[in-house]
Amino acid sequence: MNRSRIPNVLLVNPRFSPHAFWNYKETCAVVGARHVAAPLGLITVAALLPEEWNLRLVDRNAAELRKDDLQWADLVMIGGMLPQQRDAKRIIVRAHSYGKPVVVGGPDVTASPAVYADADFRVLGEAEELMDDFVGAWRAGSERGTFVARSFPDLTQSPLPRFDLLKLEDYLHVGVQFSRGCPYNCEFCNVIELNGRVPRFKRTSQMLRELDSLHQLGYRGHVDFVDDNLIGNRKVLRSFLAALEEWREAHGCPFEFSTEVSLNLADHDDLLAAMRRAGFFAVFVGIESPDTEILLSTQKAHNARRNIGESLRKIYRAGMFVNAGFIVGFDAERASVARAMVDCIEEAAIPVCMVGLLYALPNTQLARRLLSEGRLHADSDRVTTDCVADQCTSGLNYTTLRPRQEILADYRIILREIYHPRAFFGRVRRMALTLDLSRHGVRSPLRALGRHLRSFLQISLQTGFRDRKARPHYWRALGDCLLHNPRAIRTVVSLAALYLHIQPFAQFMDQLLSAQIESIRTADSHVPLMRVAAVEPAPPMSAVASGAFERD
Are β-strands 102-105 and 353-357 bridged in parallel, bridged antiparallel, or unpaired? Predict the structure, then answer.
C-alpha cells in the first residue's frame, strides 16, 4: 500500500444486538429516527486524525456498510463496547476480505485486547493520548501494532468532535462530553478502570464551542452529556452550569439536556436548581439495590442509608425525571430480593428501570475477586451469539452463592411486575404529577412541530388503541397529566414511546428466563443455559468518547 498519498479512512460503528435493552428500535421507529445515540467516540477519533486525511463514517445501526465503502477505504477504523463485539469481529473479517487493514479502539478492546488479536492495530486507552503514535506508525509503514495509553489524558486537549460527519436526523439524541471519570469505587464498575477515579474536565469554552457547532449544523432538541458522573466535581460543575444557562438563553433554548449522576445529587439543592436553569430534563441514576447491606458490600456506600424515594422526588421537583439502574445477583443477597426491589421502584415512581443481572466486567475489581476465588466463568469477555446483548440477557458469568435458579426467578418476577402496563403507566402518572416543569422549556423549530404531532398520533394509536392491556392505563396517565400538570404532557408521551420498546423486551426476557430456569431445574445444576457475554452496565442516555462507555 502506498503510504505517501493521503489515505481514505472509513470509520465504522458496529451494530448493537437487536435484543439489547437500550436499543429502543420500536421507539426510534415511531419518532422517525434510525438509532438512539450517535457514535461520539468515533467522531472524536475522527477529529484527532490529520486534517488532510479523507474520512467517511458508517454507523451500522443507522445504515448499511456497502461494498463501495470498503473498496474506497485504505484503512478501516472501528470501536465500541462489548454489546458491539460480535459485529466488530464481523467487520474485521469483511475488511480483511477486501485486503484492508483494521484499527480497533474503544472500551472493549481496552478491557479485552486478546479478543481482537486478528485486528492489525489495537488502540488501548483514550485516543487523545495515542492517536499521534498511531498516525506516526502508519506513515512509517507499520503493518501491525498495539498502542497502550500511559496515563489518563488532559481533556483540555480533546478536539471538537466531527459532528459534521453525522446524519443528525438519524438519532434520538446527540452526545457531548464534559468530563470523564468518577470519584466512587463501586466494585462492579469498569468506569474507574477505563477513566479513573479523578474526574477530568474540558474547559467551559470547549463545551460551548461543541454546542455552537451542533447549533450551526441546524441540530435542535435532545443533547446528552455522556459523562460517567456529571457531579463528580461539584465545584467545577457549578461554574460550567452557570455558563451553560447563559449560552442556552442567548441562543433561544435550542437544546434540552440529559446526563448520568450519582443519587447524592438530591443532597445539593443548589446543583438541582442550576441544572434546572441550564435545561436538564432527565438523569440516569445507578441505584443498584434498596438493601443497605448489599450496597455496602459492593462499595456503593453513597447510596446506603437514605430514603431513595424521597431523594428521587427531590429530583422530580427540580424538573428532571429519572431513569434508574438496578442489579440482581450480588453475593450479599441472602434471600429473595424481588419484593423489596419492586416496592422501591413503585414507591419512588421510577418509570424506566434498567434492571439487570450482575456481570463481572473484564478487568474490574469484581472480576479480579471472582477469578481469585475460582468462580469466574472462562471466556466471559467473548460474545458468542446475537441472542446475548447486555446484562439483562447475559448476566451471572460466575458461580453464584445463592442458587442461580432463585436469582433468575427473582429477576423474572421483577420484570413481570414493573413492566406490566398497569404498573408502568401508574408510575408514569405519579411521577408526572410530581415533576415541576414551570421553568423548563426547549424551543423547537416549526418544522419539528409536525414531526412531534405525527409521533404523538403514532404513539397514541399503538398504545392507546391497539394495545388492549395498556390502553386504559395510557389514557389515565395522559388525562391526569392534562388535568393536574399539563406542562409534563410531553414527558408522559415520551415515556409511552419508550414503553413501545419495553413491553416486547419484557416479553422476550420472560421467555428467555423461563427457558433458563427450566433448563436448570431439569439438569439440577448451576450451569447457565448459554454461554454469556460481558457488557458495560451503562445507562441509555450517553456515550463516552475515546475509550470509555458509549451508552446506547
Answer: unpaired
Total residue length of the chain: 552
Q: Where in the chain is the domain with CATH 3.20.20.70?
A: 155-394
Q: Which CATH number fits domain 8-148: 3.30.60, 2.20.220, 3.40.50, 3.30.420?
A: 3.40.50
Residue pair 157/128 in contact (Cβ under 8 Å)? The answer is yes
For residue 381, the model assigns a pLDDT of 81
Strands 75-79 and 8-13: parallel
Closest CA to 84 of 66, 67, 60, 68: 60
Alpha-carbon span 535 to 81, nearest angstrom: 7
Q: What letter would DSSP give residue 548?
A: S
Q: How open is the CA angle 473-475-478, to the nearest 5 degrees?
A: 110
Q: Is the CB of residue 159 less than 8 Å from the CB of residue 131?
A: no
How many CB atoms neighbour CB 19 within 10 A? 20
**What does the block give as the cell for 19?**
435484543
The 10s digit of each residue's pLDDT in 262-289 is 999 999 999 999 999 999 999 999 999 9
Q: What is the Cα–Cα distance from 260 to 238, expressed in whole angstroms?
A: 16
The reported pLDDT for the residue numbered 441 is 61
Name the grid cell of 134: 498511531
- pTM, rounded to two decimals: 0.92
pLDDT mean across residues, the chain = 91
CATH of 155-394, one of 3.20.20.70, 1.10.10.10, 3.30.70.100, 1.10.510.10: 3.20.20.70
